[in-house]
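User: Can you recover a sequence for this backbone? Please restate the input before giving your answer.

Assistant: Of course. Working from this structure:
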């Protein structure tokens, strides 16, 4: 059996968590990541028949029965994951239609999955219905996107268009746009369902006055989505109070769409 700490999915998870903390996106014990794993791959590193413990999830996700996830733990600090992954991360497998989860590795101090586990699993199910190659859901508190929700309309089309107009790369990286939720109580099935509903159409969902969810086929894609949107929000906050003498027009955004063969969210460009 190979050492799971040397698994590519593990080393990339640890690296991504460290980058998110170093970027200032995940203070204290905020933020969470889940990575859908292939059980055959997991079997190279773990005895999948050995269950350390089982716990209820508080939701159901029948389509993900038997699937394994590498996930961050509740109350864990991203700054520590690189030093003690066996405590702050866990590999879990959904059972009983998603109503329960089996711990296969990790959370060695008796901990458990992130408090946003429902949102993660419901979001995985939503993204898989749109893209069967989707594997990652990550949640962060990037300060500029968060600040933007205090001073900008929360209309999804207008929020997205503003980000697209801030730098050329925004429409290239997330042509599917950004979903936006008003403030809701976090850690509940309700916010999980609302987030998942928006993730069927877009890979980014902003939680007003809280943070953002990003989805991707791998950790690089999900991280890059948030990174690009955060850059757009930073530029917006730097210029929002100034007279605008130039802008990326819709005609120019259409040029980008055509040149790069993008599929831009229908109806979101004039």
């Amino acid at each position: 059996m190979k050492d799971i700490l040397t698994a590519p999915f593990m080393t990339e998870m640890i690296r991504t968590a460290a980058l998110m903390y170093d970027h200032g996106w995940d203070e204290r014990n905020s933020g969470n990541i889940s990575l859908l794993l292939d059980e055959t791959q997991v079997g190279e590193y773990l005895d999948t028949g050995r269950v350390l413990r089982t716990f209820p999830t508080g939701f159901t996700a029948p389509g993900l029965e038997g699937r394994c996830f590498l996930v961050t733990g509740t109350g864990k600090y991203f700054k520590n994951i690189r030093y003690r992954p066996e405590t702050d991360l866990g590999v879990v497998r959904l059972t009983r239609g998603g109503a329960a989860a089996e711990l296969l590795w990790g959370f060695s101090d008796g901990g458990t999955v992130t408090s946003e586990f429902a949102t993660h699993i419901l979001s995985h199910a939503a993204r898989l219905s749109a893209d069967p190659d989707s594997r990652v859901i990550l949640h962060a508190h990037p300060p500029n996107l968060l600040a933007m929700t205090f001073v900008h309309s929360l209309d999804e089309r207008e929020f997205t268009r503003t980000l697209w107009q801030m730098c050329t790369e925004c429409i290239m990286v997330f042509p599917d746009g950004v979903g936006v939720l008003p403030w809701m109580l976090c850690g509940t099935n309700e916010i999980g369902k609302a987030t998942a509903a928006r993730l069927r159409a877009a890979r980014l969902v902003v939680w007003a006055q809280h943070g953002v969810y990003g989805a991707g086929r791998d950790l690089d894609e999900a991280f890059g989505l948030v990174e690009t949107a955060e850059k757009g929000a930073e530029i917006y906050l730097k210029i929002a109070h100034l007279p605008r003498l130039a802008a990326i027009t819709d005609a120019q955004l259409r040029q980008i769409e055509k040149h790069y063969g993008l599929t831009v969210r229908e109806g979101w460009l004039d």
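That completes the design. The first strand starts at residue 32 and ends at 37.
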